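task queued by scheduler; priority normal; single chain, no ligands, no partner chains; default sampling; output format set to C-alpha cells
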Amino acid sequence: MTTKRAQNHKGLVESEKMLHHLPGEHYHRLQKTRCVNLERAEAAESAYEMRKVASELLNDTQSYIISQLSGKISKIATLPTMNFPKATITGTNGKQLTEYLMPFKDDVGDDVTFVYDTDIKAYTDDAYCMYELTNAGIDDDYQRRIMQKVADEYGCEFSNDELLSNDSTVLLQAILAVYAWLKLKEMD
C-alpha cells in the first residue's frame, strides 16, 4: 500500500492483530468486540486492496484501448470529404439553390437529393421527405411526429415541413433515416 490512508489502515490492522488473544473461549465482552473488529478490519483491508487492483486494471485497459484506437482515429481523420455532384437550380419562387445528388436511393429507387439554400444558409431536403410520407398514406399529425423525432435524433431542425441543417452529412443521415423508416413500413 502506498497511500497515507492505506498505511494508516494497515497500521490499524496490525495493532488489532497484536492485541488479539489466542483462540479459545472468551468470557469478556471486550475480547469478543476486539475479535469482531479484527475481522472487520481484515475484510476492509481486503476490499480496499481489491478496489485498488480493479482501479489499476481499469486504467491499464483504458490505456490499451486508447493506444489501439489512436491509429484508427488518424485513419478516420484522413477520410475523403463527400464531394457529390451538384447543380444550380432555380426554385419555384425564383431563388437560386444548389442541388446535391447523392449516390444513395430513396424508398422508390430515385437518387436522394438535397439542396443548399443560400437565403437561409442551410442544407434542406426541400420538404421531399414530407412528400414521400404523404405518398405513403401517412396522416399529417403522424408525419410531423416522425419528422420531429428524426430531426431530434440526428441533430437537424424541422421547420415548415423541411429538414434543415448546417451540416450536409447530418441532413443526409436524417433523410436516409426517413427513407429507411418508409421501407420498413412497407413490410407491415
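post-processing summary
- The beta strands are 86-90, 96-105, 111-117, 122-124, 157-159, 162-165.
- The chain has two domains: 4-77, 86-186.
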